[in-house]
């Protein structure tokens, strides 16, 4: 299914907006960032049932 796009959800974080339209399986686009939003962030991905596999990665982000 070439046009298939899995459902995406973002947890609301104060002062940061996730642009789901510009995000995909390889990148996450964030809007409204300030210098103080620099820090360690976690991205978690879960598959659909019946297995519901989950993977998560942490990475440091510096806002310049």
TrEMBL record:
Coiled coil: none annotated. InterPro entries: Ig-like_fold, Immunoglobulin_dom. Transmembrane segments: none annotated. Residues 26-53 form the Immunoglobulin-like beta-sandwich domain. Pfam families: ig. Signal peptide: none annotated. PANTHER family: BEAT PROTEIN, BEATEN PATH IIIA, ISOFORM D-RELATED. This is Immunoglobulin-like beta-sandwich domain-containing protein. It comes from Diploptera punctata (Pacific beetle cockroach).
